[in-house]
Amino acid sequence: MQMQNTPPKLLDQVRDHIRVKHYSIRTETQYVQWIKRFILFHNKRHPQDMGTTEVEAFLTHLAVNGHASASTQNQALSALLFLYKEVLGIDLPWLNNVVRAKQPQRLPVVLTRTEVREVLARMKGMHGLMANMLYGTGMRLMECVRLRVKDVDFERNEILIRDGKGGKDRVTMLPSSVVTGLQAHMEQRRTLFEDDNRIGKANVFLPDALAAKYPNAATEWCWQYIFPSGRYSIDPRSGMERRHHIDEKLLQRAMKKAVQAAGLAKLATPHTLRHSFATHLLEAGYDIRTVQELLGHSDVSTTMIYTHVLNKGGRGVLSPLDQL
């Protein structure tokens, strides 16, 4: 008797659809987690048998009992939207009408130039180099972590940031003050690459379908991560053992120690260096559109928030007390 093919499990279908759309492994992990929590919350009922009442009950539970932030609630909703529309192929008009949690409008933490100098002075080695690049270029943390050799142009003093937020590419400057340190780091990185190559472990992760299009690219120097992990790890998708980029948590911890050592009361993180980059450029008189392009913002209104944290008091207004 011929065996019937067993249909893939729901979560496996979710993973397959996410990979077809070339979503990141982080998005895949988060979406699968939220869908699993949604199903377990409703006693393992299949999503096909549930509707608006169950979705709203789950989101309400996150907000009231789980004290989840607006961004967390919206991420859970995005995962459920993906499940119903992309995986189950069910067009549910009510799902589009579920109100997303309103994001609180908060001003970013910004360091003064003196504070930046104090923090950077306390960060050494690869972490120090990365922190300098974050402040000197305005890159996001993961954009810096994922930089590859081919993305840095020393002749033009440019860094090409590929597949940034929203899947966009952009160009930012390569600060002259980090060139020497970065070149020295690249020499050490080349040695590590050659060592990996000798033992057959120079293969690096390639985005989208590039691995199939360029079979040899994964072992070429130009595709290697500039800031590598100190050990090999197993790729969760391919199952291949190879060297990935550095874990961003290591830079976050190094930054936290430097901030504490500098005696700063501000809750500064690596992303604070990006905020400080934008604010200091505006303070120096650079056009807001230029800053918008360097940061990779789709809308100038996002960049406008930095005009509210310039070193001129609230909204740049001179207090009447100072005019007496």
Descriptive account of the structure:
This protein is mainly alpha-helical. It has two domains: 10-96, DNA polymerase, domain 1; 113-308, hpI Integrase, Chain A, CATH 1.10.443. It is 48% helix and 7% strand. It has 14 helices and five strands. The termini are far apart. The mean pLDDT is 86.
**Strand share of the residues?**
5-15%
Describe the main β-sheet briefly.
3 strands, antiparallel
Helix content: 40-55%
Shape: globular
Low-confidence stretches: none
Kindly, what is the distance between the CA atoms of the first and last residues, rounded to a whole number of angstroms? Answer: 97 Å
**CATH superfamily of the largest domain, please?**
Intergrase catalytic core
Mean pLDDT: 86
CATH domain class of the largest domain? Mainly Alpha
The run of helices and strands is HHHHHHHHEEEHHEEHHHH
Query: How many discrete structural domains?
Result: 2
CATH topology of the largest domain: hpI Integrase, Chain A
How many H/I helices?
Answer: 14
User: Structural class of the helices, strands and pairings?
Assistant: mainly alpha
Radius of gyration: 23 Å
Which properties best describe this structure?
324 residues; 5 strands; hpI Integrase, Chain A; mainly alpha; DNA polymerase, domain 1; 7% strand
